[in-house]
Amino acid sequence: MTVLVGIGFTVPWVLLGLLTLPILWLILRAVPPAPIRRLFPAVTLLLGLKDDESVSDRTPWWLLLLRMLAAAAIIIGLAGPVLNPSRDETGSGPLLLVLDASWAGATRWSSTLDQIDAQLTEAGRAGRPVSILRLTEPEPPVFQAAEAWRGRLPGLTPMPWQPTEAQIPQTLAALEQVEDGFDTHWFSDQLAFEGHDRLVSALQGRGEVIVYQSTASATAILPATYQDGAIQLRVLRANPGPAESVTVLAQGRDPVGAMRVLQSTSLEFESGSTQAQIDLALPSELRARITRFELQGQRSAGAVTLTDDSLRRREVALIAGTLNREGLELLSPLHYLTQVLIPTADFVEGGLTEVLPANPDVIVLADVARLSDSEQAEVIEWVEQGGLLLRFAGPRMAASDLGRDEEDDLLPVRLRSGGRSVGGAMSWGEAKGLAPFSENSPFYGLTIPEDVTVTTQVMAQPDPNLADRVIASLSDGTPLVTRKPLGLGQVVLFHVTADAEWSSLPLSGLFVEMLDRLAVASAAKSRQEAQMQGTVWEPVQILDGFGTLTDAGTLAGVDGVELVSGQIGPDLRPGLYESGKQKLARNVLAEDAVLTPAVWPADVPIRGQDITTETPLAGLLLSLALVLLTIDVIASLALSGRLGLARAAAVMLGALLVVPDAQAQTPDDTDFALNATQELVLAHVLTGDAQVDDIALAGLRGLVQTLHYRTSVEPAEPIGVDLERDELAFFPLLYWPITTDQPQPSAEAYAKLNAYLRSGGMILFDTRDADIAGFGASSPNGRKLQQLAAPLNIPSLEPVPRDHVLTRAFYLLQDFPGRYSGTEVWVEAAPPNAEQIEGMPFRNLNDNVTPVVIGGNDWAGAWAVDRNGQSLLPVGRGYAGERQRELAHRFGVNLVMHVLTGNYKSDQVHVPALLDRLGQ
Amino acid sequence: MNAAQTLRERSEAEASRLPPLLARAEHLAGTVLLGDHGRRRSGLGDDFWQYRPAQIGDSRRMIDHRRSARGDQQFVREREWQIAQSIMLWVDQGASMRFASDKTLPTKIDRARLLGLATAILLVRGGERVGLTGTTLPPRRGNAQIIRLAQAWSEDAQTDYAPPEHRAMIPHARAVFISDFLGPLDEVELALTKAADRGVRGVLMQLLDPSEESFPYSGRTVFESVGGTARHETLKAADLRDRYLDRLARRKDALSHLCRATGWQMGLHHTGDSAQSALLWLYRALDGGAQ
């Protein structure tokens, strides 16, 4: 292909025809236009007059130009022009495609994959062996045929981290193993990372390196921090560009429990700055609900920041045994507690009976001995539901006989009467220090300052369970802090006072850390390594490269210090971690992170990542020529005074050129409703992908035929519905094929869909990809399905149990194949109390129709028939394939039967028993 | 469709054209004040002219007793001499007249008929006898004659450039010729000289389309007469304009020269102009000719 001015030509020699244009110009000028015939009675006066010159009037220049353009368009059109021709990178030898594959490129991942696909196609054409190397998950490159890689492309996903320091040597070592030289195409995510230059030079040593890098700046959000009563959000971008506005969405669960956007705010990047910042003041109720902040329109782990306890301010009720005496602030038993908690907690004021309905997270009882019976009962109930009751000893507690003979419910241990005091003026012995914390203690790992001493304490009775309940003790082994679980909550007793009278503990930093560990004070500041010493955190949910949270599964726990200070990588994944009652979010970016754009050596060519597809222009140019010639016809007619004819021609041409637009001729709502309701109609959701929609329609048509032949259900011709526009209530069953590029329905459409599901409708989701990646894990359609279905009210699901009514609504079926088979189909889970009754073959399951059926077997493909009733798509091979198609049809019949009859077939099971009872 | 039906249809169509033409002509004629042509001398008539003393030779019956009773002298009452004239019209029915250069303009034949008929209406109201030249419709009085005229003019001739009808001219009558006079000049000359020989004087009105006056054509053109008898092809119509206009001026000259020689009056009217001005001119010309 020859490329001229950015346009390639398949048959360039035809362009020589352009040389004839000047000749054509001259000829056209010389040939007179056709004479105009005019009626003119005074022609008698003209008879005998001779023309002075033999040259006639010339064709008007614009008509000539028009004809020239038409001729040129034909010539160029025939030369086969192609816009954006793929340039011949006729390299040879092995080709290594290096992908950063970090979160920064996740938003553009699909276009990157497209480009890689294009490169693979090209490499395949040139017969070059290819290998793909992901820097975030380096493996020794294996050079294979390009085709082999193409199949594996959808499995490549970006990772939620940058290439780590540990991975660079791995990568370099892996590259060392390759013996031959190779060229490198590097798909960069723009961001620099440690060891970037080493990698570049290593690759340059092996062959030519070309970098593909998008021009759009990578954007990321830093962890939200809480300062001065407001949430501080900071957004970074890699390149200081022009002023730009980004929207940050605060997502969380609403009171119903559904995820929704609780707040959205926009930040402005000033021109030339790389950071934007905003303070977001939210009511604490709302703030506590936020689970994540994300950048709108970005789909990467870097554009998401998870929140943990640090944003959540705990509500603490402080109740002291003695009333505050005015003016004696420092002597108040609550003074030190208040000082510790003010930065991180909200206080609930009032007496015990008043604060309990407010359901605080923590109730602190400082030297409160006795509670009334009703208070006691209420507090126990509150603790059992997950409250943390924190008690401090004191003179009153020591004096009372609380928990003396038998263990009080609200005390972890029995107490000896009187307590003891050591190291005072009137006692022997020295004030005691603290013993190191045991491994089982939540305080394990905290450093104990030397100067913390305890002079007085209440003593625990040595009960058999005492050892289990002690979480901190003095150097002589007597308990300092004891704890016992109670229901979902716990009761913790400090055997000293909350003020500095009995010990210097409240004066020390250890006190703060202890309260922190007990989750009384949540860490508003970022956690210090010291605080995390000795803790192990269990991952609960982790982020993938696209910023979606997935279950952590069986990932190992992470050491606390590593968690706060380690580099995010394969061993430390971003996500939510849990330790005891505390939650900690580890985000992709640390609070002090900076995005540094990658710097490339001057001799590395950098190409944009904008994928350009070849566009053949021949058709366009030839149509242009046709249009020009048509205009020429009309213009010539107009010039020769035959415009009447020209008008007729124009009308006819208009009629020919206007392409009938099926979408434009939509019937109004009433027609739609009539069509949908006059008979039973099955419907499929229009995805916007014409091929998928056609197959879905043909599939439903095939199902309708089957139903006609075999059952008394005789639906009319199926309909495709537009979720945005059409009413859904008319359809018992919606078939929804999933394509990766279908648009997300609007909020109104979701409202409609949820109303539809509530009112007994069923949606059959079909990812059509045979669920290659296991359910929902990483197949693109599966991900799309998750996105699409997230706002829907879908109950918990389970794979179709063997006794589900779908297995016997019409046919007896064991599995539900479509064009593919063997994958699991998911339906609404059975209620937990469903159990098999003796003598019944089936459990008594849900009373309703399952609102969704989810699978990936491409049922419509198996059902699809053309207008003549012939199957459109092949299923399997030979007889086995036909059998599979038959089973697919049977599944369809069962599904429609289930939709229309609910659990009627389930009830039929009871008929013998009923007949028996009736004595028949 | 059979012949009878076609004939019927055509006659209906023709008949339907009559009333509008008539109505328009009546309307046009209504704009001109009319009256008998007073001869400005005593004679037979209805209007009083003068009293004169009875002379010898006047019969007794002629004496106006009402005037004479005022004195001793006897008076005779004289009336103004009024006479009805015969006026013959010729409106060119040739195909060349069925031409209008623009849709907004009337065809020449339409305007010619309108003017002819309006003149006839005026003349009939004035008491004259109106008819066509030739033998088809001799001059008569009365409104029925108007209808007959309109009927006669509702038929188109097929030939281009119809020659003026000059047969059966009534001596000393008046005549009105309306045409574009683009046909052969000899025929016109013959008709006029013949009329002059018989003492017939009249008015010659040349009716032209504005495009015939300005020749706004250019480019390669084939000009054809309406009847298709004459055609002329040119490569550059614009170049012909001057020479054409020259020839047209010469034709007009020749016509007016002919008129002067025969004592006729010549007028020029364009279809783009108002018909009323043409009618007024015609009427004045006829009136003036009556002097």
UniProtKB/TrEMBL annotation, chain A:
Start and end residues of each Aerotolerance regulator N-terminal domain: 7-81
Transmembrane annotation, as ranges: 6-28, 61-83
Gene3D superfamilies recorded: 3.40.50.880, Domain of unknown function DUF4159 (3.40.50.12140)
Pfam families noted in UniProt: BatA, DUF4159
Keyword field contains Membrane: yes
Domain DUF4159 intervals: 682-900
The keyword Transmembrane belongs to this UniProt entry's keyword annotation: yes
Name the UniProt record assigns to this protein: Putative membrane protein (TIGR02226 family)
Lineage: Bacteria, Pseudomonadati, Pseudomonadota, Alphaproteobacteria, Rhodobacterales
From TrEMBL, chain B:
Xref: Pfam families: DUF58 (PF01882)
InterPro entries xref list: DUF58
Domain called DUF58: residue spans: 50-250
Protein name: Uncharacterized protein DUF58
Organism: Ruegeria conchae
Lineage of origin: Bacteria, Pseudomonadati, Pseudomonadota, Alphaproteobacteria, Rhodobacterales
